[in-house]
Write a structure and sequence with these properties.
The complex is a heterodimer. Chain A has 1 helix and 7 strands. Chain A is an alpha+beta fold. Chain A has 2 domains: about 5-35; about 45-120, Sandwich (Immunoglobulin-like). Helices cover about 75% and strands about 0% of the residues of chain B. Chain B has helices spanning about 10, 20-40, 45-50, 55-75, 85-105, 115-140, 145-150, 160-175, 180-190, 190-210, 220, 225-250, 260-285. The chains are: A alpha+beta, B mainly alpha.
């Protein structure tokens, strides 16, 4: 005679939910492992429309990593009016992810051709 | 039908009431948080969730499942359980670990629906594995008379059982330190002489805990076969601690691209925590 699994409704429920979660995690990770390549980080930055503020303006910066690996210590340098430069730093930029930040300048956006001048990052 | 320990299975595995099960899960939740809250509060752990290669994360899940199976088999609440019951308990504990990690990380505003799925899953999985081990230990150890009643002790004294318990203790104790950058700093900045001294301290502490103190179960090593058995216990404990430390450092990416002296330094640095876990933890866990 086989030993029965004598569990109550709560125990079966917790086991059922646990099983679904564990299987879903394994299936998701396995699928991701097969689908993810090994491209190094590929970081781009796009500037949004300037937003006027007190004695100056600020510009939204969207930084994106299209690579398959995380980029660390990402620095984005943005050129502003009258030779001003602002540097945005992002600690971690995971693969296929976006982060947003702001840079701020004195003066008016009309006086400048706002642009991203350089992007640097480390690849762990 | 008789179970492994010769008792009637109907007495040791009678169906519990909902209230009893609820209390058992409560112990698991408390244990999970008690042992792994520092991990959930550590920035390096969140970042590891982003940075860890997916294949390694998958390996972490399987290794944790193996560890849970081993712990539940050798030190769990019901040592008379069949492998099916051990597997069910392990799945439950991992499920609770995933739920708890999700809840706490959401509460701490570390995960949110605006993030890509792989970021959310990565953070949850990395934290949940240690939480799951905590749930398992908490369920078995934070209980009252029920948890003590199922311990015949016969299984735990085998070498395989001791190795599994030492590994569990080392992982549970060192997992809260392994992801921190301090291990890397210490491993690279400490001189070889100091590292050797640290290894000596680890071995000495292992000896003190195994032989001289009154931790529960210590007599299993100390009195089983005299000095030879104690020496064997010390060597095995330190070896397990170093292996577990290396495995955890690899998991958290702390060995990636490191030179051999750095790798050795990091393992010895974490090995102290691993040794405390493997010796004191293993004895306490029984």
């Amino acid at each position: 005679m086989k030993k029965p699994l004598d569990k109550n409704a709560l125990e079966w429920t917790v086991f059922g939910v646990g099983l679904i979660l564990v299987l879903a995690t394994i299936v998701y990770l396995a699928r991701e492992a097969l689908a993810t390549g090994s491209l190094p980080p590929e970081v781009t930055a796009v500037l949004g429309p300037p937003r006027p503020g007190r004695d100056g303006f600020q510009v939204p910066v969207t930084v994106q990593n299209r690579g398959d690996r995380v980029a660390e210590d990402v620095t984005v340098t943005v050129a502003g009016p009258r030779d001003q430069e602002a540097v945005l730093t992002i600690g971690f930029l995971p693969r296929h992810s976006k982060r947003e930040g702001w840079v701020r300048f004195r003066g008016s956006p009309a006086d400048a051709q706002l642009r991203v001048t350089s992007i640097g990052f480390a690849s762990p | 039908m008789l179970d492994r320990s010769g008792e009637s299975s109907s007495t040791s595995r009678a169906r519990r009431t909902i209230g009893e099960s609820f209390r058992e899960y409560g112990r698991g939740v408390a244990g999970g948080l008690l042992f792994s809250l520092p991990l959930l509060y550590t920035a390096e752990v969140w970042h590891t969730g982003f940075a860890m290669p997916v294949g390694r994360m998958l390996a972490l899940v399987f290794l944790t499942l193996l560890l849970l199976l081993g712990y539940n088999r050798y030190a769990g609440l019901r040592q008379d359980s069949s492998w099916i019951e051990v597997a069910i308990d392990s799945v439950e504990e991992m499920g609770l670990g995933l739920i708890l990690s999700t809840f706490i990380l959401y509460l701490l505003d570390r995960i949110g629906l605006e993030q890509p799925v792989h970021e959310i899953v990565g953070q949850i999985v990395v934290a949940a594995m240690t939480v799951a081990i905590g749930v398992s230990v908490g369920t078995a150890q934070l209980g009252g008379e029920e948890s003590d009643a199922g311990k015949s002790g016969e299984i735990a004294v085998t070498l395989g059982g001791r190795l599994v318990l030492a590994w569990c203790g080392a992982v549970l104790f060192a997992a809260n330190i392994a992801p921190t950058v301090e291990v890397l700093l210490l491993g690279t900045e400490m001189s070889p002489i100091r590292l050797i001294a640290l290894a000596g301290l680890s071995i000495a502490l292992s000896a003190v805990i195994l032989y001289s103190s009154d931790f529960r179960g210590s007599e299993g090593w100390a009195k089983a076969g005299g000095l030879g058995a104690v020496l064997q216990g010390i060597v095995i404990t330190y070896a397990v601690a170093l292996l577990a430390s290396a495995a955890m450092l690899w998991t958290f990416g702390r060995l990636d691209g490191a030179t051999l002296p750095t790798i050795a330094g990091e393992i010895v640095v974490l090995g102290l925590a691993g040794t405390l876990g493997a010796s004191a933890g293993r004895l306490l866990l029984q």
